[in-house]
Amino acid sequence: MDFDPWSPQFVADPYPAYAELRARGRAHFFEPTRQWLVPHHADVSALLRDRRLGRTYRHRFTDADFGRTPPPAAHEPFHTLNDHGMLDLEPPDHTRIRRLVSKAFTPRTVERLRPYVDRLAGELVDALVVEGGGDLLTAVAEPLPVAVIAEMLGIPESDRGLLRPWSAAICGMFELNPSEETARAAVAASVEFSAYLRGLIAERRTAPGEDLISALVAAYEEGDRLSEQEMVSTCVLLLNAGHEATVNTTVNGWWALFRHPEQLAALRAGEVELSTAVEELLRYDTPLQLFERWVLDDIEIDGTTIPRGSEVALLFGSANRDPAAFDHPDTLDLSRRDNPHVSFGAGIHYCLGAPLARVELAASLTALLERAPTLRLVEEPERGSHFVIRGLKGISVEV
Question: Strands 311-315 and 290-295: what pairing?
Fold first, then answer.
């Protein structure tokens, strides 16, 4: 099978194509997106840490320097929102914003959230059990991380239904070669989401609380150089990144467990450590399949020079199935100890929310194992159409 991120067959199971890419070499130019595909674990891991690459180039170069066409003016609201978030910034701006936000995601802070996360996971699973089953995506996988990150930010419960549709529209732009229709939806969501958050920030200025938005406002007032646009972009990034990967890891993970009943039985019997199982589910069917970097200074991969101005696509899904890094990589092994997966990235852009994601994944897994011990699949789920942020359209279960 060829690498074809727009093919439903490829998106359903990209792993055979990854194996072919790894066998053919360490870097492959992919003409449809004009990117260099990097499929090997060692290269992906090294390039995530390599400061000759960046999430942006605009701190050093113009679009003309890179031979790139600036985005259409009509797309400006999306790019303004996206480009001021720390995921798409490089030092010193990235360092400044990450320092301010990281206080909310320390292991100690996250540990204090655990009782709330566990309680919420239990309530969601109990509701699923009362109904006799339903869609695991909408009943448990989505509402848990959305509620947790919204709670941290201080978004009122009555407004939380707005978040997922906005997020889905914006995240469509992270797919390869997004359509104009996708761009229009992302722009509309960016305008609405930004306006909503500006209103919330204004409220927190006059009536601060214990939430993260209030903390960012306080940092702004104290002159820690966080602009209002950076505040808005940071909140959107935290809301989007704070649930997209967790949602997809949950549904991808349960789909993998249902296809490997012996592994699910071992988990239910308590023969596998929960934390080890979570890491393996993150590795086995990676929620974020690809992460992009701009080449700021020439690099060389296996004798091939990749010049400044190029874009590399680091294939996380391929790296996590690389036999050079994992024994029997295509086997789901919930007791796998040596598991250097790259699902949370590496280097300065390593996922800030990784500790929280692990707590959420463990909470939902525990609640489903304990409160729905006979959970079973109703029908084979349908894979979503997106490749980069890869999940399911739904997953119907009975209890």
Answer: antiparallel
**Residue 158: Cβ-neighbour burial (10 angstroms; 0-12, 13-18, 19+):** exposed
Q: How far, in Å, CA of 236 to CA of 194, rounded?
A: 8
Read off the amino acid at residue 206: T
Residue 248 burial (CB count, 10 A): 23
What SS3 class is residue 277? helix
pLDDT at 222 over 80: no
Report residue 362 as tokens.
């463990």
Q: Characterise 144 by phi-psi region: left (phi > 0), alpha (psi -120 to 50), beta (else).
A: alpha
Per CATH, which fold does 8-398 belong to?
Cytochrome p450 (1.10.630)
Query: Is pLDDT at 220 greater than 80 in this prediction?
Result: no
CA distance 157 to 150: 8
CA distances for 38 relative to 44, 151, 315, angstroms: 7, 37, 6
66-82 tens-digit pLDDT:
888 889 999 999 999 99
Query: In angstroms, rounded to a whole number, what is the distance separating the alpha carbons of residues 251 and 268?
Result: 17
Tokens of 168: 């889905």
Phi-psi region of 311 (alpha: psi -120 to 50; beta: other; left: phi over 0): beta
Task: Give the whole-angstrom CA distance, residue 213 versus residue 231.
Answer: 8
178-212 residue pLDDT tens: 999 999 999 999 999 999 999 999 999 999 999 99
DSSP string across 81-143: HHHTSGGG--TTHHHHHHHHHHGGGSHHHHHHHHHHHHHHHHHHHHHHHHTTEEEHIIIIITH
Mean pLDDT of 44-50: 98
Residue whose C-alpha is closest to residue 332's, from 384, 268, 254, 246 = 254
Q: Which residues contact 328 (CB under 8 A, 6 or more apart)?
A: none
Q: What are phi and psi for residue 314, nearest 5 degrees?
A: -85, 115
